[in-house]
Amino acid sequence: MWASFVAGLMKLVRRPAMWVLVGIWFALAILFGYIIPYIVYNDPPKGMTVTERITLLLTMLPSGWLGNALGGFPLFGGAFLVIAGALVTGSEYGWNTVATILIQRPGRLKVLAGMLLALGVFVVIFELAVLGPDALASYIVARRLDAPIVWPSAMQILRGLGAGLLILAVWAVAGAFLGIVFQGTALSIGLGLVYLFVIATLISGFSGQLSLLKSIDKYLPRANAGGLAGSFTGASGSPGISHLVDATHATVMLFVYGIAFLVLAAYIFRTRDVE
C-alpha cells in the first residue's frame, strides 16, 4: 500500500490540473472573502445600512476568520474536491492504465487505498490553501483599519480544522466513488456538479414549501456540510451554508456518507472486471 500511495502522490504532485484547482480555490476564497467585501466596506452602495456594514467588517476580522473561511467549503470547496476525487480514480480508466496497475504486485484494495491516501494529502493542501491565506488577510484588514485583533480560541480553531477536513474529505471521496462507478472523469464530474449546484439547490429551495423535502434535505450531504460549516458562522448569506441541522447531526451524517462512499468504492473496484 505504501508503494501505491507514493506512486499516487507523485502522479498528483506532477499533475498540473490538481495545482490549478488549488490555485483557483485559493484565488476565489481571497477574492470573495476579502477583496470584494473590503471594497464594498470602504465604498458602501446606496441602501447599505450601518448594521450591514459592521456585519461585513466582522466577517473580515480575525474574530470572524474561521467562519469566513469555512463558509465556502460546503458548495465551492465541494465542487473542487469532487473534481479532484474524480480525477484521481476516473483518470486511470480514461488512460487505460487500471489493468496495468492491477497486474502489479499490490492487491486491488491496496491500490485503491494508496490512491485515496494520496488524495487525502491534497485534501489537507486544499484546506490550508484557504485557511492560511485567509488568516493573513484577516490580520492585514485588522491592521489597516486599526481594528482589534482577536483570534478564535485554540479549541475553536481545532474544531474548525476538523470540520473543514471532514467536509472536503467527504466530497473528495464522493468524487473518487463517482470516478470508479462511471469509469471516467467527464460524467463523474458532471453528475457531481449537477447535484451540488442544481439538485441540492432545488431541494433546498422548495424545502420551505414542502415538509417532505425538508425532511429529506436534513439527510443529504450538501445540507449537512452546510450545517457543519454554518455552526461556525451565524450568517446564512454564503451559498451552501445551512442552519437546517446542528453540528452534531451534520458531523454524524457526513461520517456516514464518507464511510458509505469508501465501502461502495472499494466493493466496486474489487469486484468489477477490468478490460
Specify the number of helices: 12
Q: Could you name the ranges where pLDDT drops below 50 across 5 or more consecutive residues?
A: none
Total strands: 0
Task: Determine the strand fraction and express it as a percent band.
Answer: under 5%
Category by helix and strand content: mainly alpha
The general outline is: globular
The percentage helix is: over 70%
Q: What is the rounded distance between the termini?
A: 23 Å
Whole-number mean pLDDT:
90
How do the helices and strands follow one another from N- to C-terminus? HHHHHHHHHHHH
Number of domains: 1
The largest β sheet comes out as: none
Radius of gyration: 20 Å
How does this structure look, described?
The chain has 275 residues and is mainly alpha-helical. The protein has one domain. Helices cover 77% and strands 0% of the residues. The chain has helices spanning 2-13, 16-42, 50-60, 65-70, 73-94, 98-102, 108-144, 154-182, 186-206, 211-217, 221-230, 247-271. α1 (2-13) crosses α7 (108-144) and α5 runs antiparallel to α7 (108-144). It is globular and about 65 Å long. The protein starts with a helix and ends with a helix. The model has no long low-confidence stretch (mean pLDDT 90).
